Amino acid sequence: MAGVRPKSGPTMHDVAAAAGVSQATVSLVLNSAPGSRFSEETRRRVRDAVDQLGYRTNAHAKVLREGVAGMVGFIGDSVATSPFAGAIIEGAQERAWEDGLLLLTVNTGGDKKLEAASLDTMLSYKVAGVVYAAMYHRLLDVPSALAGVPSVVLNSQDRAGHLPSVAPDEVKGGYTATRRLLEAGHSRVGLINIESLESGLPAAVGRHEGYQRALEEAGLKVDPSLVRFGQGGEEDGYRYAMELLTAATPPTAIFCANDRTAWGAYQAASDLRLSIPEDLSIVGFDNQTTVAPHLRPGLTTLELPFVAMGRRAVDLLLQGAEPDGRVELMECPLIERKSVTHPKEIP
Known about the structure:
Elements lengths: L11 H8 L3 H8 L9 H14 L5 H8 L4 E6 L8 H14 L3 E6 L4 H13 L5 E4 L5 E2 L10 E4 L2 E2 L6 E4 L1 H14 L5 E5 L8 H16 L9 E3 L4 H12 L7 E4 L2 H13 L9 E6 L13 E4 L2 H13 L8 E4 L3 E2 L12
Helix pairs in contact: 1-2, 1-3, 5-11, 7-8, 9-10
C-alpha cells in the first residue's frame, strides 16, 4: 500500500527495551567501548536481546562513525583455482575474525580491469586494509590504489619495495630439503628446479641457493650435470628425471623443487624399474595435498606455510602495515613420509 514503509528489522532501541537498559548501554556493550564498565549480567541481557530479536549493526553507520568498515579486503590472482588458496584464505579469515572483522575476498584471475574495479569497490567500503595475494611466490607490480590504505603483499613481494610482504623462506626450504638427503647418506644429489635462475623467480632462485648452500656445507660442490631447469610440471619432472637416471653416473637422490615435478620423477623411476626409496630417494616442495600424500610411497616434502602466512598478513594490517618494504620470510616445515632412505651400498 502507498505510504507504508517496509519493515527494516529491529533497532537498537528495540534491543534496549528488551534488555531493560538504555540505548547508550546497548551501543557501548556491542562496540566493546574502552572504559565502559558493565556487570556481566548487563552484558548477558544485551547479548540475549540481540540474539532473540536478530538485531544486526548498521555497517554504513559504523563507517560514518569510525571511518572504517568491519572488513579486510583480500584480492588474489587465482583464489578460485589454486590448490593452496583455501589454506591461505583460511589463515587470513581466521585472524580477521578474531578481531571481529570479515574477509571480503575477490578472485581476479589475473584480470587487471577486474582487479582495479575490485579495489575501487573495496576502498569505497572503507575496508580496514587490503591483503594483496598471489598464488605463487614472485615479484609483483602493486596497484597504485593500495597507497591509500594499509596493505600487505602475501606470498609474493612488492617489486618496488614499498609495501610489507609475507612470503615463504625459499632458501631455507631448499637447504632443508637437500640437507635431508645428505643426512640420509647421499652424496650425488640431483636437482630439478621449477624455472631458470635467469627468470628471477624467488621460488626457483631461493630453492637453488638453499640446495647449493647445503652441498657446500657438506664439503660438496654443485655438479652442473646433476641440475636441470624445468617449469614445474609433471612432464618436465619425468623428462629430466629420465635424463639424470640414465646418465653414466646417476644421482642416488633428487630434490624436486615442487611436488608436481616429483610426481613426474616417480613415473620415470617406475618406467626404469627403480624402487623409491630403495633405489632412489626423492624430496619435493609444496606439500600439495592433491599429490604428495597420494604418491606411493608418500612423498617427503616441504610444506608452504599458507595458513600461518595468511594469519601474519592480517596481523600486519591490524598493526597499521607501515609501507616500510619489510619482507617477512616464514619457515617451510619438512613433512616426512616414505620417499627417503639411505643409498644402496655399492658392491
